[in-house]
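Hello support,

Our group uses your service weekly, and this is the first time we've seen a run hang past the timeout. The protein is Testis-expressed sequence 264 protein-like protein. I'm not sure whether the cause is the sequence or the server load. Input pasted verbatim:
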Amino acid sequence: MPDWVSLCVVTSLLLSILTVVYVLYSGLRTDITVLTGSPPIRKITFAYKFKQGPYRNCGQLFQESHSIGPTLSLIGVFYDNPNKMSAPQCRYAVGSILSEGENEADEELIRRYETSGFNVFSFPEVTHVVITSFPYRTILSVLLRVWRVYPRIQRYIV
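Update from on-call engineer: The timeout came from a worker crash unrelated to the input. Re-ran successfully.
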């Protein structure tokens, strides 16, 4: 077998292995558990941007929010059921948790988010929620979340 064919075979094999590792690391095999009960967070102050359109476009906002506050927890609020609402009409808010509980949000951090076009809102504490989690490790994690988590939540609620 010529050297170039061997090189192509080895390269293809390595790329295939890297792709499988990337997809697995992104969350393809992550266990998804849906629960009800007390929320994992209390009252929060949230810096967010509101958008309307397909939920698959929310990754940009997660990245933008993460770039401003890389150590902060990210959160997404999705208002509509995409199975009942056309994708262009779906509404969502994405951003970062600036403070939790009785802690005050850092004023400089609030200014950085507001300068970047984010709004700031405080959610009151709630007592009962439906919750699940899914890792955000790569941009593919967002797509896997939509593909794997939302149907699981839907089945749980219905």
